[in-house]
Amino acid sequence: MTMQNIKDAKNNVSLSRRRFLVGTVSSTLLMAFAPLASAANIGQSPQETLKNKLFSPTVWFEINPQGDVNINIAKAEMGQHIGTALARVVADELGADWSKVSITHVDTDPKWGYMVTGGSWSVFQTFKPLSQAGAAGRIALIEAAAKILNCPAEQCRVENGAVIYQEQSLSFGEIVTQGTFNRVFTPKEIDALPLKPASKRTLVGKPSLALDIPDKTNGSAVYGIDVELEGMVYARPIVPPTRYGTKVTNVDDSAAKKVKGYLGYHILQDPSENIQGWVSVEADTYYGAIKAGDALKVSYQAGKTAKVSEQDIIKEGERLVADENEGGLFINDGDFSAASAKADKSINAVYRTHTALHFALEPVNATVEEKNGLWHVYTGNQWQSLTLPAIAKALQVSDENVVMHQQYLGGGFGRRLFGDYAIPAVLTAKAIGKPVKMVFTREDDSRFDQPRSPSVVSFQALFDQKNKFTGMQHALAAGWPTLSMAPGFMPESLDKKIRVDMFSTSGADHWYSMENHRVRVANNSLAQQTMLPGWLRSVGQGWIVWGLESFIDEIAHQSKMDPIDFRLSMLDGLGKQAGKAPESVGGAKRLAHVLTRLKEKTANVKLGKNEAIGVAISSGQERTMPAWMACAAQVHVEPSSGKITVKKLTMIADAGVIIHPDGALAQVQGSMLWGTSLALHEQSPIENGQVSNLNLNTYTPLRMNDVPELDIEFVESEEFPVGLGEPGVVSIAPAIANAIFQITGVRVRDLPIKSAALVST
Fold first, then answer.
1. Which residues, 6+ apart, have CB-to-CB distance to 42 below 8 Å?
2. Residue 17 — very low, low, confident or very high, per pLDDT cuts 50/70/90?
3. Where would you tag: which of 339, 583, 638, 717 has the fewest CB atoms within 10 A of its CB?
């Protein structure tokens, strides 16, 4: 299955088989996309279909008699203000008064369709249907108002929450109260809807406050960790010594019984097999559960990875990239073998990254209760359509018997995509027959994280007798999140040998034109068995482009070319690098544009002693969802100690239409700092089968006193909007490393970068 097939299956981009319904239900105007036909709604009017909820929309909004517009959001809010961005798209096309717009984050009722928030997809996937929904609503309101005013609909316009005809106007509330709505837009009509040109937009791309900020500042916002249920008990999980294969052999709770409020423990059996060897401790307070967990003595038969180390995983990765029989072909442009036979010389390099954690501010948690056979799960989650079936399997009930109530996320970064942390909570609630709130301590959270796997990538570049670059071979190995959590998303490799985790390989399918380019990908099975490899903000791109953009600098150096000019020479936009509508119009030429602007912006920077500027580019989550970005890192290296100081980061970004400028700026700022932190600080090496740095005393992300100056510039564009949640992470590490090489002559090939390796010898 290709990524495009996946997106079409979710009905987020393609609406070719959906109608748009407009009808009044209980004095409120409802609007929703619905299937073209189904046994349940054939022959029923839009009003009847909406009233009986016989539909499965991807977007649904409503206008009440007061003219308030509420837009339902089926995406997770984790600080990116996604509800505001999506609401602005609808409200702009609708012509709404922004002061009367609100949002609701919905639960997992099947009517909302496929639910996932990740991959920087949210705006990209929903911009078109949301725009069409707003336009359809505007037309329906105009038609109803024209009947009330007894005037031609084509002479009416919508402004700021009202339909206007000459000197007359009707507010949305008046139209809803007085009008009649029973309208169907066919797929053909949806495609033909007149959408506003950029020059007519009043909300998209304009400054405004995010709708969720007031609740977050006054304390009324509810995160998963805030949920309280009547009669609930608190639980703490005891995380076993290995992710897989551990069995509990004995539990001694004699010391735990001395803890005030201790209620007991349960050895959890999980039919879904996501948690193995787990014990849950219960108490009447959170503090009691923590203390009782510390006092409980659990004996185990540990799984087979109990002695695996970080170096073991890295060593296996090195073996995989060195053995051409391992893995499968991902890219095979030109004829690398023939080019290799003709080459006069070659250069080789191996790049590595180490285990990194998510460390979201809010530790993972879930609160659960069962009512009349229906399981209610209150938590913050990014991929409900993946998580809910796993919860149901663990409970041994059908999916229809589980409802996930979406809460704000105190940080996601990919960790809350697959919400396996809800499984021990539901199993505990099932075991004791009471509502349960399970909160992981920071250490529990770290041990149960889905880390970014250690990775190894190797490169070989070919040159002819004139020292001209003629081709590149690239092999990469790591643990693959999608293999364990969503294998149905994995297409076959070109040679049909394996199925490929696109989220762990897409960065290798870059936008440089290379006459001969071969990429081989392999899953590191030892990493896969030791941990549950996770999606971490920037996904595979983060570690793949680290090596790629560093090695491109190596090729430029070998070619005796300026690193920017060398990149520009390969960003010609020819062939497959031309891009395609709607998401990648312009292709590599848009990368060339941002890189050229970066060159101009940094050309006259005055550098101090032991300072340099390194550059790198990145192109978004994948070829089918690019964001064109170029980064310059101004770095200082102290010769005596090797201390690295990132003084300034400059980023030029082209993400098409910017829906919510303040949110876009915050996304890029946060991603650049995240990239800096991963480049210089973050790792938790595997020791004895588990991550070793469990709290912020030893896991040390970027601190405030090390934050560099940020200079971010967005290219003005009317092209299709693409995501900005992750792409800004990707180019930071190689830009820093490329600057370090210019200062020291040392090629850094391991993340995080260690200052000691840079001391002059």
1. none
2. low
3. 638
